[in-house]
Amino acid sequence: MSSIKKSESGVPNIESTNILVTGGAGFIGSNFIRYVFEKTGFTGTLVNYDKLTYAGNLMNLVDIDGKFGNKNYFFERGDINDYGNVKRVFSKYDITLVVHFAAESHVDRSIFGPKEFIETNVNGTFTMLEASRQHWASRQDVRFHHISTDEVYGSLGESGYFFETTPYDPRSPYSASKAASDHLARAYFHTYGLPITVSNCSNNYGPYHFPEKLIPLVILNAVEGKPLPVYGDGKNVRDWLYVEDHCEAVWQILMKGRTGETYNIGGECEKQNIDVVNSICEILEQLHPLKDNKEIKNSKLKTQNYKELITFVGDRPGHDRRYAINCDKIKNELGWKRQHGFEDGLRRTIAWYLDNRAWVSNIRSGEYAKWIEKNYTSRA
Ligand code: NAD
Ligand code: DAU
Question: ∠ at Cα 51 (50, 53), nearest 5°?
Answer without folding.
Answer: 115
